[in-house]
Model the fold of this input.
Amino acid sequence: MKTLAIDTSTQALSVALRDGDQVVTETTTNTKIKHSTQLLPLIDSMFKLVNWQPSDLDGVVVTEGPGSYTGLRIGVTAAKTLANTLSIPLFTLPTLMALAGNVQATTGPSLVIPFIDARRKTVFATVYLKEGYTFKPLFTTSHGLFTDFLDQVAAYLADHDDLQGLSLNFVSPDIEAFRSDIEAKFGEEAIIFPSESGLIHAGHLGALPLREVDVDTFIPNYAKLSEAEENWVAQNPEEAKADEGTYVERTN
Done:
């Protein structure tokens, strides 16, 4: 099965072509160049490099978020367009699971805590129980202050004796901005992976659990309102409450 895998959920951009279990080619960048200018030319050049045509694809894989609003829209739109045009399946997985998949060196069960900076000292974060190559989510993916999230993790661990003694593995592309908070809360119990481990590699996505989604109805998981929506909710609290927090007016 030949697949194109895309991740544009953070500052980094990663695109890969896979043939079954083999990564044929992968390009990962970590610059501030806009994904909108890089993604399509990169996909085109990778097809040419390996002498593939888009029609050779059997499926497309894309990370579903959370992450950068603009980045997610670019990657998901490209993936949906290709899948729809070629009439092939679209597969997704959570961005944080893709990030957690970088933690492979542990032996036995362990806890993996992936997170992404969401600005203003907030993060998108969750906790996985890792056993082999399986990742069981213990938390619903959340958005909030990182220090509050760490408090929730500590409280959860205190209430679950079966998790005592498991290693705490923190992985993030933004790890250095939050290192002091992790160390203050968990000290030497925390295993903090270097920032390069926070780069999502599209070539690895096919080795993680994927779910097939409907091309027409699939939307990214933003896990929070956009800044424009947050501003609108703040200015229109009664309307937001009546419309379940959305400022998009329904016309049907």
In short: The chain has two domains: 2-95+200-224, 104-198. The two ends are 41 Å apart (CA to CA). The first helix runs from residue 35 to 50.
